[in-house]
Design goal:
The chain is an alpha/beta fold. Helix content is 44%, strand content 16%. It is built from 17 helices and eleven strands. The strands form two sheets. A seven-stranded mixed sheet has the order 7-6-5-8-9-11-10, sandwiched between helices. β2 and β3 form a beta hairpin. The longest helix has 16 residues. The protein is globular and about 70 Å long. The protein starts with a helix and ends with a strand. The model has no long low-confidence stretch (mean pLDDT 96).
């Protein structure tokens, strides 16, 4: 059986050099192992998250190591600097052993020397003045945020991007409120605390083994997204469209607000993702939700008109970096086509809205080109719509993710 570090090494190599998504690569790697999942997950996500910081430390003692050697060094540095429960001797010796087991014996002395030097001559990360290195955020992304949101706001949320994101459980209001949900979670051995009408889960848990989840008492959704759906002011008799719905959290929240009445159409472009929505709705007993395949960028004349529309479009994801750490390394040129697609989906979605109806446009990113600029262009080209409110939320240690939403009304 492969060791935990061997699995982490293979997974990280796929992420860095085969462009694998961290969550998919990790899920595949740990699917069949009985032990070590927590250690592997921490090591893989941690190395990806802290890559800029780690590479800065490595560069002081080693120039341009080969790819597999670099992966081993990154793992070793992360264990030395960020995993307090791993003794330095273990971090170094296991890294050397990893090299020997992967045909890299020639480099074992180099790896040993670099890690010993990095341990003996420790960088005080908290005192670094280069924020890109300190927080492992590319400088071009920091510069974009400074220009858009100001230095004070950005310096305020940068420390949050390497913290664990809070997990919010949204009660299925047709069955329980927050107090009752917390009691049921406690009965499952899961700790949490009340946050307004939600429950913040504060201990580790496995959804597959959680009876409260299997019994349809809650779903998981970030606070910022929940608040955006709440701002739509849904009513029991509403017909609601959720344009880009999968995995369905926004539709589930909407149905809960509507007491499982009215009608919610939850759309996605792919059949397997539509099934994901419907499976979730079935688990929650939300019969008001109908999931179906539909392309949000193409008008479908067979659909009825809606009172409310949720238009949460595909985006760059810069607001959820702490949940998906590799997003921070996206090249800004790779996302320059997104605003055109977002505008197309928003423009198409608006055609389904009744007069006097409201539309929620939202993204989980911090990029004005995908947020305010898309809304501004839409309003400029659609005189029968007006903006009721627009909100940008920055990541916070005890709060929601980075998020933008705008409530539009058809006059």
């Amino acid at each position: 059986m492969k060791s935990s570090r061997q699995i982490a090494f293979e997974t990280l190599y796929k992420i860095f050099y085969d462009d694998a998504y961290s969550n998919l690569a990790l899920d595949s790697a740990i699917a069949e192992i009985p032990e070590g999942k927590a250690f592997i997950t921490r090591l893989v996500y941690g190395v990806v998250e802290r890559k800029i910081t780690i590479d800065s430390i490595i560069s002081a003692f080693c120039k341009k190591p080969k790819p597999k050697v670099l992966v081993i060094l990154r793992m070793g540095i992360y264990q030395l600097y960020f995993m307090d429960k791993v003794p330095a001797s273990a971090a170094i010796n296991e890294s050397v052993e990893l090299a020997n087991n992967n045909g890299l014996s020639y480099y074992s002395k180099l790896i040993n020397a670099v890690l010993h030097n990095a341990d003996s001559n420790r960088t005080n990360i908290e005192k670094l003045t280069d924020l890109s290195v300190k927080y492992s955020i590319p400088q071009h992304l920091i510069n974009m945020w400074y220009k858009a949101y100001g230095k004070e706001n950005v310096d305020g949320f940068l420390p949050c991007l390497n913290e664990n994101a809070p997990v919010f459980a949204v009660p299925n209001q047709t069955l329980v409120d927050a107090d009752e949900l917390l009691y049921e979670l406690n009965c499952d051995g899961i700790e949490g605390e009340i946050f307004k009408e939600l429950v913040v889960i504060t201990s580790s848990f496995d959804l597959k083994k959680c009876r409260a989840f299997q019994n349809g008492l809650f779903h998981i959704e970030d606070l910022s997204c929940y608040n955006a759906v709440k701002a739509l002011e849904l009513k029991e008799e509403d017909v609601v469209f959720d344009i880009c719905s999968a995995p369905g959290g926004k539709a589930f929240t909407a149905a809960s607000f509507m007491n499982n009445k009215g009608k919610i159409y939850a759309f996605d472009i792919y059949e397997h993702r539509v099934k994901l929505i419907q499976d979730g709705a079935n688990r929650l007993g939300l019969t008001s939700i109908t999931s179906m395949v539909n392309n949000g960028a193409e008008f479908n004349s067979s659909l009825p008109l809606a009172d409310k529309i949720i238009c949460d479009v595909p985006c760059s994801g810069f607001g959820i970096i702490r949940r998906k750490p590799e997003i921070r390394y996206k090249d800004l040129d790779s996302i320059k086509e997104l605003p055109a697609l977002q505008f197309e989906i928003l423009n198409t979605s608006s055609k389904y809205l009744k007069k006097g109806g409201k539309l929620l446009y939202s993204t989980c990113t911090l990029n004005k080109r995908e947020n305010e600029k898309v809304v501004e262009k839409f309003i400029a080209e659609n005189s029968d719509f007006s903006v009721l409110k627009s909100v940008t939320t920055f990541p916070s240690i005890n709060g929601g993710d980075g998020f933008f939403y705008s409530i539009l009304e058809r006059n």
